[in-house]
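Quick one, tokens below. Sequence please?
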């Protein structure tokens, strides 16, 4: 049986490497599931998802230039639903920002102290 792109086949994981897992099929052919094709989320360690001897369903993506099978597990699983992103607030009108700046300048900024007392040196009071 010749495996072609688009075929969904069951195979057994025969070897795990840092970059992916090799899967062997009943007809004796084998191919590679690259680490980026294991799951939709980031996969740091492939052994968290696959072990040698696991039976997995894979999608045949095609063959590389050397005739080796490129496989995917990720393409057979539904993509996770991302939570909706919060809407960005519209930018305030420039006249509002100018009014706020002038208010803060006139009031002495935050803190309500209103600046130094006349004739005072500032700083903390002595006891």
């Amino acid at each position: 049986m010749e495996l072609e792109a688009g075929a969904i086949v069951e195979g057994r994981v025969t070897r795990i490497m840092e970059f992916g897992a090799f899967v062997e099929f009943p007809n004796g052919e084998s191919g590679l599931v690259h680490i980026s094709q294991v799951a939709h989320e980031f996969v740091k360690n492939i052994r968290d998802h696959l072990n040698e001897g696991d039976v997995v369903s894979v999608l045949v993506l095609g063959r590389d230039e050397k005739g080796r099978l490129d496989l995917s597990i990720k393409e057979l699983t539904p993509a996770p639903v991302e939570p909706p992103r919060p809407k960005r607030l519209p930018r305030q009108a420039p006249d509002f920002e100018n009014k706020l700046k002038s208010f803060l300048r006139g009031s002495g900024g935050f803190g309500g102290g209103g600046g130094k007392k006349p004739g005072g040196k500032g700083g903390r009071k002595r006891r």
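The helical segments are 94-107. The chain has a mean pLDDT of 83.
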